[in-house]
């Protein structure tokens, strides 16, 4: 009986940890970090990428780590520069 309770507690603890890890991933746009994680394996076009970066940065620290936010800000700046060079501008 005690072994059953201990085993159940261990399993429930692992489920709780997995749920906490999964929760950290909810709302993150992983395609902005690695093209292999994009839907269908295709990278966003530059205008869509800018839009996705803007949305991700609006979510801020409630979804992304400080390191991820730094990466997103750098990527947004680079994307803005490219859009300007192409004469598209940001919308």
Description:
The longest helix has 24 residues. The protein has a domain of 59 residues. It is an all-alpha fold and 91 residues long. Helix 2 packs antiparallel against helix 3. It starts with a helix and ends in a 6-residue tail after the last helix. Helix content is 64%, strand content 0%.
Instruction: Give a quick account of the main beta sheet: strands, pairing sense, barrel closure.
Output: none
Number of helices: 3
Mean pLDDT: 79
β-strand number:
0
What's the gyration radius in Å?
A: 19 Å
Oligomer: single chain
Keywords: Signal
Signal peptide: 1-20
Topology record:
Blueprint: H1 2-25, H2 46-59, H3 66-85
Helix pairs in contact: 2-3
Task: Spell out the key features of this protein.
91 residues; mainly alpha; 64% helix; 0% strand; signal
Question: Quick gist of this model?
Answer:
Residues 1-20 form the signal peptide. The chain is mostly helical and 91 residues long. The chain has helices at 2-25, 46-59, 66-85.
